[in-house]
Write a structure and sequence with these properties.
about 120 residues; five-stranded parallel beta sheet; single chain; alpha/beta; globular; Rossmann fold; 5 helices
């Protein structure tokens, strides 16, 4: 039997956050790709077709909200699940993320158990 690992794209401009999430997810059996800005995130998402994207809102070059909106408007990537990961915590921030097409929202700093719970929910 061939086992295919679920692919996850982690997008954050903080290298430590990317590294921590990558280590957590790889230890749980996921294949993880990373991107440090919005433009790179779009490129990796289109090439690698992840099952899930953990996407920071505040990114250089293009915001996570714009990345989310672009991916959800593209027929080739619209089915990718997106969980926004950000320090923004106002209800209006959550509503804006959902309006852009996000499937869910996690607040930073994210508890590893909650991250894994969301990842399992959406993969």
């Amino acid at each position: 039997m061939i086992f295919f690992k679920k692919r996850i794209l982690v997008v954050d401009d903080e290298p430590a956050i990317c590294a921590n999430l990558q280590a957590l997810l790889e230890a749980s059996g996921y294949k993880v790709f990373t991107a440090a800005n919005g433009v790179e995130a779009l490129d990796v998402a289109r090439r690698k077709k992840p099952h899930l994207i953990l996407l920071d809102v505040k990114l250089p070059m293009m915001s996570g909200l714009d990345v989310c909106r672009n991916l959800k408007q593209d027929r080739a990537t619209r089915s990718i699940r997106i969980v926004m990961l950000t320090a923004l915590g106002m209800l209006s921030d959550v509503q804006h993320a959902v309006q852009c097409g996000a499937d869910d929202y996690l607040h930073k700093p994210a508890d590893p158990a909650k991250v894994l719970e969301k990842v399992r929910q959406y993969t």
